[in-house]
Amino acid sequence: MSFGPPPGSPFSGPSATQTSAAAGLPFAGMPSELAERATAILDAEPDHPEPDIAFSQWDHDRRPFTLRRFLGPHRRGLAGALGLVVIETMALQAGPLLTQIGIDRAIIPRDASVLAVVAAAYFLAVVVNTGASAVRIAYTGRLGERLMYQLRVGVFSHFQRQSLGFFTSEKVGVLLTRMTSDIDALAALFQDGLVNLAVQVLTLAIITVVLTTLNPTLALITLLAVVPAMALLTLWFRSASEVGYGRVRERIADVLADLSESLAGMRVITAMNRRHHNVIHHANVVGEYRDANVYASTVGAVYGPSSETIGVAGQAALLFFGGRMVLNGTLTVGELFAFLLYLTAFFAPIQQLVQLYNSYQQGQAAVGKLRDLLSTDPEVPESPDAIELPLVEGRVVFDDVSFSYDGRTEVLSDFDLTIEPGETIAIVGPTGAGKSTVAKLLSRFYDPGSGTISIDGADISTVTLASLRRQLGVVPQEPFLFNGDIRYNVGFARPDATEDEVRHACDEVGLTELIARLPDGLNSPVHERGSSLSSGERQLLALARAFLARPRVLILDEATSNLDLASETLVERALDRVLEGRTAIIIAHRLATAMRADRIGVIDHGRLIELGTHDELVALGGHYGAMYAMWERATGNPSGGNPLGGNPLGGNPLGS
Fold it and tell me: Which of 49, 237, 397, 473 is the right S-S partner for 546, CB 3.0 to 4.6 Å?
């Protein structure tokens, strides 16, 4: 029920939806009518201190991930939980023994005083069991959440530690599976599986001891009738279920990978009219996951009823032999009754162990997947004795650099290039020539196969990655914007920047008008991947981010290739401000962008074949001269005309 004016009435202000719509933005915020409730909920939340995270590129545990090593630091806590399990189980299993005492020493002799004592003891056992169980569940729950928190942070930190090649070779959905369903399976194993395993195993041990104490002969008959058959059945189940749950873990990773790829590529899927095909493909992927689950369920379905059948047969054998012993006077009625109760209790843990073994198999499969992940070392490691790169002037040298992505086909061969401090150099060439690889090697996303890359004389492989990348700025062809507001995205590399510094960076690259027309200014949301902004606006935000980060060396990887003429003009103006006083490498897609550079390098088949100013290369009449002549014909721009006017025909003489 709402006590305010109805939305859209003349007495109500514009809603969040209307405000965003007026600014041309899709709505993705908190409805105003729910804001007060959300604030009240947040105010009631407990305070959480900032986590104390020590992240290191190289100083981390490289030992194989195992369940024992994972739980090892918490031995004392686990020992305390085991003590509570012992108390809980002993109190629970006192019931049948107290029943036997009550029958033999109170009911048959008609002794009311003994019956009262037994009843009181029974009640006390129930209270102790309930209390120990409650404390144990709360204790292990908190301990389990702490362990899962550490594991999630550890896996996420391991992702941050990896090199770029790791993410190009792994599917996003598979990585999501490691962080979600695999860790959830491990959490279920610890919080429910291991503790309950201890309860059930201890229950079986106590029952065996009590049965042997009451009547060794009948206990031996009972166990011989049950244990061998159960052992054989369990061995079969262990082997079959291990295969089944391994398949389940693999297939769920396939499902999430296909889902992630389909969601990320929905625009292309729709444009290419592939939705029906994708539904069929996903149905096949989900079908394989279903088949894996059906197999695992079938194994459990065989094991469960079979174990129940063995239990019923054991009870029949116990009733027959135990009944004869009662008739012969070698066993009391109370003892037979206790035997029957304990035998029922003996099979309840076995049934629980069936389910626990399912959790154990899922958890062990998850441990194996996490072990493989956490044992993956970064392809671009940071040396333990790496030094801090001091503030650089920006002299970049590629010395005889060769590189191959697959270890066979070289993308760069004997590449030599020197860039002086403050110089802007453009790299041009056909598609696949190795232009973007130059940028990736300088950023140390990859290491060269041979040769060295240095900044101010320091080999970048000998300095810390943090100190290197603090002084490098990268503006990619498709700038990635995070789900947040403009201030967050511009200040991403400098989260400590003040609002005035963020606003100044936006003003410098020409974002003043955009921010002025947005309803919340710098606090306006840009949504996931910047979906509420145009390509030019996203690129300007990326340039503002680079401007605010104050890098000494700036890399522009085809930063204007996807822009229209109007957007390109805005970005070109912003580039003049961002490049001022910085060493810059421009991976050029458009010839107009390359002409702005102090020098231009032409790459073909991984080799630098031409290097010079625009006029020098045109006069040379080589590859660049041919590109320029093609550009002139496509644009109708005569020699000596304005080379910075873009390409209205969309011609692209440089390749992509």
Answer: 473
Q: Which residue has the tokens 């598609």?
A: 431
pTM attached to this predicted model: 0.66
| Cα–Cα distance for residue pair 329/325, rounded to 1 Å | 6
Judged on CB neighbours under 10 Å (0-12, 13-18, 19+), 157 is: middle
H-only helix segments in 416-509: 435-442, 465-470, 486-490, 499-508
What is the pLDDT, as a whole number, of residue 427?
92
**Interatomic CA distance for residues 537 and 521, integer angstroms:** 14
Mean pLDDT, to the nearest integer, of 632-648? 51
553, 442 contact by CB (below 8 A): yes
pLDDT of residue 49: 62
Beta bridge partners of 303: none
Q: What is the β-pairing status of strands 396-404 and 553-557?
A: unpaired
To which residue do tokens 């003489």 refer? 653
Indicate the domain borders of the chain: 67-374, 396-613+627-635
pLDDT digits (tens, 9 = 90+) for 13-71: 443 333 343 333 444 455 666 667 767 776 776 666 666 666 666 666 677 887 778 77
Where are the extended beta strands (E) located within 436-575?
Answer: 450-455, 458-459, 472-475, 553-557
- Residue 131 near residue 91 (C-beta atoms within 8 A): no
Which of the four CATH numbers 3.30.360.10, 3.40.50.10470, 3.40.50.300, 2.40.160.10 does domain 396-613+627-635 have?
A: 3.40.50.300
CATH fold group of domain 67-374:
ABC transporter transmembrane region fold (1.20.1560)
Nearest CA among 94, 116, 95 for reference residue 105: 116
Question: What is the structure's pLDDT at 48?
Answer: 63
- Whole-Å CA distances, 255 to 97, 259, 260, 374, 533: 52, 6, 9, 22, 31
Spatial contact of 394 and 421, defined as CB atoms under 8 Å apart: yes
**pLDDT at residue 421 in the model:** 92
Asked whether 643 and 649 are in contact (CB, 8 A), the reply is: no
Determine the Cα–Cα distance for residues 107 and 468; give it in Å rounded to an integer: 85
* β pairing state of 450-455 and 458-459: antiparallel
Q: Reduce the DSSP state of residue 424 to 3 states and report it.
A: strand
In this structure, what are the phi and psi dihedrals at residue 641, rounded to the nearest 5 degrees?
Answer: -75, -175
Instruction: Please write down the HEC assignment for all residues of 32-88.
Output: HHHHHHHHHHHHHCCCCCCCCCCCCCCCCCCCCCCHHHHHHHHHHHHHHHHHHHHHH
Q: CB-based contacts of 259: which residues, under 8 Å, 6+ apart? A: 173, 282
Length of the chain: 656
Distance separating alpha carbons of residues 425 and 452, to the nearest angstrom? 19
